[in-house]
Design brief:
By secondary structure, the protein is of the alpha/beta class. It is built from nine helices and five strands; from the N terminus they run ααββαβααββαααα. It has a five-stranded mixed β-sheet with strand order 3-2-1-4-5.
Length: about 220
């Protein structure tokens, strides 16, 4: 093996070892529950609190024993390609449930309660033994731990983050076919300049959140 190949191999080995260490660090909350005898440990996360349009989407994910996906973390920290690879892997091996709260209900109960209800919908379908939840306590009779920035600290919550984001992005891409002027496939309903311009020139659609100020101001 030449010097350049040896150096490349050494760096690759170091990177792989570092990724495994980081993955193990993000597995400690699951390991604690497992040590207490819980088997079906679900990570729970939601996406879509901030957009002006579209639903809030939550996912609950139970990963199988021995699951390993290097680099799995908060979906916002992954590239689109990395998310899609992780999404497919999780879909192939994990138990998954989705919760969706539509804009009309978001306007009725507020985005915080809508996010909680979406999470609880997903949990009710999956029926886990224990929960790891991103920054929220759920109204369910299950052992649970709420983790601030949990999608970067727990592999189960990270997996839920990836599933929820890819699910919602796909929904917004479908809405883009109905309302092509708004660019939903690009910004997923967030208040970009393009989106605000479309609101000014075209108006509010049925999927807009009418209690969110930039939309409310234009009604």
């Amino acid at each position: 093996m030449g010097d350049s190949n040896r150096i490349r191999h050494a760096w690759t080995s170091q990177d792989e070892e570092q990724q495994r260490i980081q993955f193990e660090e993000r597995s400690i909350f699951e390991a604690r529950y497992q040590a207490e005898g819980y088997k079906r440990i679900a990570g729970v996360d939601e996406v879509g609190r901030g957009p002006l349009a579209g639903p809030v989407v939550a996912a609950a994910v139970i990963l199988p024993d021995g699951f390993y996906h290097p680099g799995l973390t908060d979906s916002k920290q992954l590239s689109k390609k990395q998310r899609m690879v992780a999404y497919q892997h999780i879909q192939d091996v994990a138990e998954i449930a989705i919760g969706i709260i539509e804009p009309e209900e978001i306007d009725r109960i507020n985005i915080y309660q809508a996010s909680k209800q979406a999470m609880q919908q997903a949990v009710a379908v999956l029926k886990p033994d224990a929960l790891l939840v991103d920054a929220m306590a759920l109204d369910v009779d299950l052992p649970q731990e709420s983790l601030i920035k949990g999608d970067a600290r727990s592999i189960s919550i990270a997996a839920a983050s990836v599933i929820a984001k890819e699910t919602r992005d796909a929904m917004m891409a479908e809405y883009a076919q109905l309302y092509p002027e708004y660019g939903f496939e690009q910004h997923a309903g967030y208040g970009t300049a393009q989106h605000l311009q479309a609101l000014d020139t075209i108006g509010v659609t049925p999927i807009h959140r009418k209690t969110f100020k930039p939309v409310l101001d234009r009604l």
